Amino acid sequence: MRPRFARYAPNMLRTLVVWSVLYAVPALAQGAEEKAVLQAMVEWCAAAQKSDAAALEQILLDDYTLTNSLGKISTKADDLAEAKKVDPKYEVLENRDMKVRIHGNTAVVTGRTRVKGVSGGQAFSADFQFTDTLLKVQGKWRPLASHVSRMAN
Description:
Blueprint: H1 9-49, H2 53-59, E1 65-67, E2 73-75, H3 76-85, E3 89-103, E4 106-119, E5 122-137, E6 140-150
Parallel strand pairs: 1-6
Antiparallel strand pairs: 1-2, 3-4, 4-5, 5-6
Helix pairs in contact: 1-2, 2-3
């Protein structure tokens, strides 16, 4: 004798497969988007470390702003001017411990940045906690706003 639910098993299995796919596809897409955001962060960091003004011009949104650890707000134009005069000159500029949250075409990335280099003839070395906001524009993740806080040594 077959159990009563046996005749429903094929339908239940199909339902489970459909639900699994419906939930897995967004998760896979989220993973791909997170990777794309992290790749944008890597490219941005590399361009800043190399003082590559041309790359930064393409990476940063026109209305990009940075609130630095002293509370001063700088713009894309300010970042491009720094890159063109290569001051600061970075030996190290690396992000770590990044966490990405995506909401539609907006991504928020939190993490830590380690910097080391020379600015105004003076050596510097510091660690910062950051929050970056990126927008997906024409299929590319681009920085819109940043905020950094210096971490105690």
